[in-house]
Amino acid sequence: MKPVPVTGIRLARDDELAAVAALRWRWVEDSDGLPQGDRAEFVREFAAWARAHAETHRCLVAVRDEQVLGMAFLALTPRVPTPHDFSRICGDVQCVYVVPEARDSGVGGLLIEAILRLAAGFGLERVTVHSSDRAIPAYLRHGFSVSKNLLQSVIDVPASRTNS
């Protein structure tokens, strides 16, 4: 596929949060089918959520001529202090999405590189990601590796909790 020219990768501006929300809606629609609910309401609520969580969830966007082509969030989580360090933080890459017409052109890799630079700027001791099968090779190319020590447990949440 021909590379898609990207004007830049940067922190999302407030006026771009609706476009980021629309990408999230599109992602769910692409993977799970049309989401229930009102799209405009979701966009408003998502943008409000992103504003309210801006300190803990830094959103990067890939743009071309002011059009948002992709997004990635870095979630910042304080860690329990050690006797040597009271300011430990780790990061989790979340919600990476590139519009289908810009996939396989390097945009996702640029977002991953930018997330890792952002993480380094915060002095994070580690960054994790829960990846789709399709994106695993991209993360591996950018320095992520499989960890024998990182485990997860899927919690069985009652349906009444997931629908609220």
What does this structure look like?
This protein has a five-stranded mixed beta sheet, sandwiched between helices. With 164 residues, it is of the alpha+beta class. The protein has helices spanning 17-32, 39-52, 107-121, 136-141, 159-162; strands at 8-11, 57-64, 67-78, 89-98, 127-129. It is globular, with a radius of gyration of 17 Å. Helix 3 (107-121) links the parallel strand 4 (89-98) and strand 5. The longest helix has 16 residues, at 17-32. The N and C termini lie far apart (41 Å). Helix content is 34%, strand content 23%. Helix 1 (17-32) packs across helix 2 (39-52). GO terms for molecular function: acyltransferase activity, transferring groups other than amino-acyl groups. Residues 7-164 form the N-acetyltransferase domain. Pfam families: Acetyltransf_1.
List its traits.
acyltransferase activity, transferring groups other than amino-acyl groups, Acyl_CoA_acyltransferase, transferase, globular, acyltransferase
Short recap of the structure:
This protein has 164 residues and is α+β, with helices and mostly antiparallel strands.
- The percent range for strand residues is 15-25%
Secondary structure category: alpha+beta
**Gap from first CA to last CA:** 41 Å
| Average pLDDT metric | 92
Biggest β-sheet description: 5 strands, mixed
Number of strands: 5
Fraction of helical residues: 25-40%
Uncertain parts: none
Shape verdict: globular
Which radius of gyration do the C-alpha atoms yield?
A: 17 Å
